[in-house]
## 1
Amino acid sequence: MNRFVVPPMPRQARRPQLRAVSRFLAVLICCGLAAPAQQITQRGNTSASFSTRATHLLGFANARNNSTGTLSVQGDSLQFQQNGKPGEKVKIALVRDVFLGAESKQVGGLPMTLGKTAAPFGGGRVVSLFAHKQYDTLTLEYVDADEGIHGAIFQLTKGQGELVRNELIARGVTISSHQDQPTKESAAGARHENK
Amino acid sequence: MKTSKCNLSIAGLIALVAITLALPRQLPGQTGAAKSSGGNGTSATRWSVQVGQVDPGNLDLAYSFQIAIYENLVEEFKKTKQFPQVFRDGDLKTSEVPNLLVLKTTVEKYTPGSENRRAVTTVSGATKLTVRSQLLTREGKVVLERTVNGDVRFFGSNLRATQNLARNIAKTIKQSQVSGSGQPTAILTGQL
């Protein structure tokens, strides 16, 4: 019965250890609190950049139509940069309005379309039933140096359009009361006539 | 026989010479007539065009469609080179241009389509647009008025209807003898 008993640490000796642990915890808590605060300041800071992948459909400065690239908000300008090409910029102050819409499109582009057409026994149609994706369309209205009105349309992944729009609003772009309507499907055979 | 053959060849030669001489004479005559009828004593003026923003009327046409029509119209007019200058809506430089025609586009009919439906059924889901295009002078006088259609029936996105529409408008105006030179009042006599 030879037991080895560890003698309890004296109270005086435990204090430095406790202090070190409490200091570490305090630092940890402080860091934890500071992190979200820093995030908020980054969002509030207007010079910070924001970027997303987008397809330029038409109208933005001298960018090529139907080209894919990165749409970014940098400083005081909105930029669209195609892969490996210099970016096209428009000053945010010149943007008059932003409209958000949604559209369902077939995926795969021309190769997929050709493939579906060539598929026997109407197999292409069956593929078309499932090969579609919902996109956001971001429509911008801006003016040039001579006050001439320009329009640009971007196609973004669903949900990204809202982010770009919010970013532009945060940087002072005013938005008109009417918003872009998503393109209605003609399922009901709806026909609008202006008489 | 020999003399008659010779006479025939001489006659043919004379006829050929006469035709050759007459043709260049006729052409200056034609241009002269054109000058007198087109000019009417006044010098030919160069007309520029300003593309106005699309009026959706009472229709709930998506803003992206309105912008797409507008942008495609500007592109198509530049492509046709019918007018020496193509201005955008709101352009301040137009105040310096003496002869300006303004293109006003009003959407009359819009059938929203679906790309998915077109892909699945082929025969349905077409996007159709019908617009009334007017060319007006600065004073508001209608020079030309046409109803133009644009649609996408089989392949392509819905926005392709706007591209086809803009192309049709530019083509219609080109065929209507409205050009960068000449008097737009003469065009009023055309089909409205």
## 2
Amino acid sequence: MGCPPARNDRMQLVDIADLHVSFAQHEGLVQAVRGVTFHLEPGESLGIVGESGSGKSVTCAALMRLLREPPARITAKRMMLGGHDMLATGRKAASTIRGKVAAMVFQDPMTSLDPVFTIGHQIAETIRAHRPVTKRDALEEAIALLRRVEIKRPELVVRQYPHELSGGMLQRVIIAMALSCRPEVLIADEPTTALDVTIQAQILQLIKDIQAETGMGLIMITHDLGVVAETVDRVVVMYGGKVMESGPVEAIFEAPLHPYTRALLDSIPGQAAGKRRLVEIKGSSPNPVTPPPGCPFHPRCPRATIECRQVTPPLEAKAAGRLAACIHVPAEVPPVEVAA
Amino acid sequence: MTAALELRNVTKRFTLRRPSPFRRGRVEHVAVDSVDLTLERNRVVALVGESGSGKTTTGLLALRLLDTSEGQILLDGEDITHLPQPALKPYRRRMQVVFQDSYASLDPMMTLGEIVAEPLDIHAIGSSSERRDEARRWLEKVGLDASYANRYPHELSGGQRQRVSVARSLILGPSVLVADEPTSALDVSVKAQIVNLLMDLQADMGLSMLFISHDLSVVRSLADEVVVMFQGRIVERASTDRLFAEARHPYTRALLDAVPVVNPKARRRRTFLGVEELLAQTPRLRPDDCFAPPISDTADPQLVALAGDHFVEAVVEG
């Protein structure tokens, strides 16, 4: 194992500044992420909300250095994970840091597991890839981890194969695997999107419980505002590869600053009784090959003016702990230094 | 007046020969178990439940895209349960479907104009120029420009493709539309557009719509009545407002409880019940709790009428 570069322990868990990610494709340069800035404090839970193509998954994949480069091209002012500079890190060292600092859970648990090995084997293998323990001890630990994620009769499940388990059970196995290296931050990319509603609620509760118990940081990537409202402390709203707004979850749901966040919240169906038309957002998401000039939301924004097309609004402090990228949102407090 | 669509005691059994490469013999699976469902004219009935509940199979049975094992399917009061496929053709004009995955359900080699006009071709309605004009008119009606007629499905976004699917389904002027998770693959901002489109067209055309979905939030905004399925059976049925306010079956309650609340201040811990626990909690009623006398006097759970067109699967204890 390569020795990861020295780290500064007082650093934030995640610290990203002005991240750009693009992919060279046939149809041109796909600009997936266009200047994203956010951070995660130790023990904090952060939700990254956005629709497909907003750049939320690519941002985290870039942070973990999971993207193949090329075709991906990553540039940033800063991209720190657990105090390690992920921009300066080579592929091998990046893998060591991933095991130590961060673990990731994806949407589809079936494709994250190998169908020809038992559950126990796969968890034990993960443990042994990062820590020098015997096979027997690793298997014992796997059983304990499965018990931790509330799988009944774990000593039986370790001998089963992925196809024998339901989607909800498999996602629990994946979470157990992610926890096996005692990560400082768990990145969950749409962990419940493929699951039924009742199972989704169980998995979200489990993630919350484990986060509270271990004190690890959590990044929850989702398109579902309900999931965000249920699980995280702070929210980053993304659209067209940019951050539109960020702030504490209660403040954002109570009084969103950015017109996009407002529109998203208004379009959620079923908030009141009675048959009614929904509030829709006209138009469709921007094409990442030819993003609109200025604010990416201006073609669909009810408040858009000519200026919105000409100027790209900076993400700036509008109130205590709240940032927004909209020229129509006045700063309620004298702008303090932007804690990116 | 006869109902637009009626399912009477419909059951669908699938026989799995060789359930796994390592096992012999056959396993029988009851996907839909004695389902009664009435879709009145100009109404939206939502069929909700989780994967494996039998809701999609019920939709396919209603459309005669699958054959029933038992029971009857009536379209406008006519029994179509055993009609052979050629004899079904005139009935197909009256019942249409929109599926979840608009990418898989649109032919990539056809232009959007051809796709939308295809039902007219199949049923030999109008001249070719009339069909072309009608297709263009429908593209506009679902919120696309008529110039889209010359484009291909891959050029569109998911929401736009779903608009094309809707146009194709409605161009024949059906009386019944089965919409199977039509908004599940769509982004939040586009989902509302498609829900509104379906609502508007349903009202304009007086469509009777069977809306199959696992998304209770959408169902609440769109349906007149909700039917809840669990393990192939209907466990509860009521008007939408009543179901959301006064659900009686533990499974319906579990389903409603699991929906994330869009208010961070209302976070709470939930309790989760397994299938066995839910089944063990089947409501027990006394005969005088029932609005109408129970259908049978067995001790098995049955669909029991409560006040206000509210039905719940319960055990009636005499």
